Amino acid sequence: MIHDILWHGADYNPDQWLERPDILEKDVELMKKAGVSVVSLGIFAWATLEPEEGKYNLDWMEETIERLHAAGVKVDLATPSGARPAWMARKYPEVLRVNADRTKQLFGGRHNHCYTSPVYREKVKQMDQLLARRFGRHPSVILWHISNEFGGDCHCELCQEAFRGWLQKKYGTIAALNRAWNTKFWSHEYPDFSYVESPCPHGENELHGLKLDWKRFVSHQTTDFMKWERDCIREIVPDAKVCVNMMNRFDGIDYFDMAREIDLASWDAYPLWHRPDQTLEEVALDTAMMHDLMYSVKGKPFWLMENTPSFTNWQPMSKVKKPGMNIFSGLQAVAHGSDGVLYFQFRQSRGSSEKFHGAIVSHDCREDNRTFVETAQLGKILRQISSVAGEHKEKQAAIIHDWSSKWAMEDSQGPRNCGLGYWEEVMRHYNALSRLGIGVDFVNGDSDLSGYKLVIAPMLYMLPEAFAAKLRAYVQAGGTLVMTYWSGVADETDLVWLGDAPHGLVDVLGVRRCEIDGMYDGETRRCIAVGRGMPASAQGSVLCEVAALEGASPLMIYNEDFFIGSPAVSVNSFGKGKAYYLATRFEEGFYKPFYKTVTDGLLTPAWAGELPEGVLAVRRGRFTFLQNASEKPAEVDGVEIMPYGTVIYDGKKRIL
Ligand code: GLA
Ligand code: ZN
Q: What are the CA-CA distances from residue 456 to residues 441, 479, 642 (Å)?
């Protein structure tokens, strides 16, 4: 069901409008006109569902679901655990979070509950099962929206105990933990597990192993809480489908782990379209990268769960989406594997912090409002191209994105404390491949690499033995690997590997890291080509590694500083495959010609010919999308594509 059509919808919060039955009636009428086929219902409705402890009021929700049902609008039913009623916080303070500095939060806000608290889990169970019993088998309820935007951590005593238990299970003995965390440093050894406390600003904050494991624990505990909710629902409705809404570049949860436990990945996208300091194409690529990550966490179509049909109100500027942009951004999500385009939210709130956030229906309540009109147009288009739904993407290139590696790398002191720019690095590879029309997935150490012709390891700081072996086998069997500087540095507990680096791959790459020099912001080192298919020159920045060739052929070399002549780009043949090594971060212009050389004859781009600047081609199964991410009309093969325009082909047949 969730992949049968291209869904179109929004968060729907009728609990804010119960005193206006006229508006509630009007809502479904407007939904039909806007081509809304699904709504995420009641995400923050707990206080209306249970105004007093044990006193439930679900009738309004039943009425809502029936009204939607009559209009043919399906329901993605939310569990309301993202925020709680005031009575609960007062009666059971343990449901509230404790901050890293050990202060306890007061009632207020949202997304601020303890994931460990047995009381909160019990309350959530009662509520979720009540909803499941009453609505779980309703023909309109096709999906469950578990909580909202999971994130953050809690440092309460219950969480501390759970953390210690998690560590004990992981390490077995305190000696093993002390070894793994290198606690001899500054005499920080733990006599036993009871001494372990989560990291805090006025206590332990230097043990990188502790900080890394805390992040892993928080990710685990959050997923565990999500599983609790999922299983409460499935106890009543065994075949219930569940999703969570994830966030842009969110760092706090390993989404690969969480996604394994859900049926549908989805995310909330709020790109800064029309910002003056970036081209439209750059913003589009930034957004596309996250769509591709969301496709990748399950390796199948996802939903764009939230985006704004017009503007946000929490970003520096409430910039309106210009005419055409809402359609462009919705279709972009579809091109990258989404089977849904949903918004926050259906009707604009009258009060509180989101009253000036855009919505399908604005304060003017008018159907001829431009946002409404364009949203309805997109609804029509999504119906028209619904055959795209469920279509998978071909495996082409994969970029390794490993949450643990990023956590460890960014927590370390040195080699560049003013910022490593991890996402900047990832984007250079992603953008170049996308501009060439090559499809990109994201993978981690657990992923199956077979089927990918090209694997890229940008700043893969943490490289456990097994992952190094997997990469070696991948190249051996004929794969092409591109690895960058600051890879293969540490093991899975963030202990630096001894011996030649990148760990376990020196013979695969044919280079060995000797030194690494930090570059101040703006500082660069010129590199020049010495091999075929490289740009004549390019500037290196951020970190410059000095590497020794151990069998690889240099393609670019440094042309200044004491490391003049040492390899900046090299390639090595290993087994049936090839391994490239980039010893520095190059200027953006380097990557497209580099990847053109790397992918030539290896991968087939989404579009065979040259594309005008700003036109992006994406392939999703048998469909090809061309989008004009520029402010100028463009022509491709005699077809004119207006700015923000989209052309879609089903095979050779144009369907939009
Ligand atoms: C997030 C939340 C929504 C809403 C929007 C506003 O994505 O999930 O509840 O607050 O932001 O942009
Ligand atoms: Zn807690």
A: 10, 11, 34
CA 32, CA 360: separation in Å to the nearest integer? 12
- pLDDT of 77: 99
As a CATH number, domain 7-157+207-388 is 3.20.20.80
The domain segmentation of the chain, as residue ranges, is 7-157+207-388, 397-599, 615-654
* C-alpha of residue 250 to centroid of ligand 1, in Å: 14
Active site residue 149: yes
For ligand 1, whether the C-beta of 112 sits within 6 Å is no
Q: What is the pLDDT of residue 31?
A: 98
Binning pLDDT at 50, 70 and 90, where does residue 593 land? very high
Residues 574 and 504: their CA atoms lie apart, in Å, by 13
Evaluate whether the domain defined by 397-599 bears CATH number 2.40.10.340.
no
Are 12 and 345 in contact, with CB atoms under 8 Å apart?
yes
Q: pLDDT confidence of 138, banded at 50, 70, 90?
A: very high
Q: How confident is the model at residue 387 (pLDDT cuts 50, 70, 90)?
A: very high
For the stretch 321-341, pLDDT in tens is: 999 999 999 999 999 999 999
Indicate which ligand has the atom closest to the C-alpha of 217: 2
Read off the pLDDT of each residue in 627-647 and give the average, rounded to a whole number: 97
* Cross-strand pairs, 407: none
Angle between helices 325-335 and 370-384 (to 10 degrees): 30
Atom in ligand 1 nearest the alpha carbon of residue 312: 12
Answer yes or no: is the C-beta of 595 below 6 A from any ligand 1 atom. no
Q: Residue type for 572, please?
A: N
pLDDT of residue 572: 98
CB atoms within 10 A of CB 530: 17
User: From ligand 2's centre to the CA of 93, what distance in Å?
Assistant: 11
Catalytic residue among 306, 374, 425, 492: 306
367 belongs to the catalytic site = no
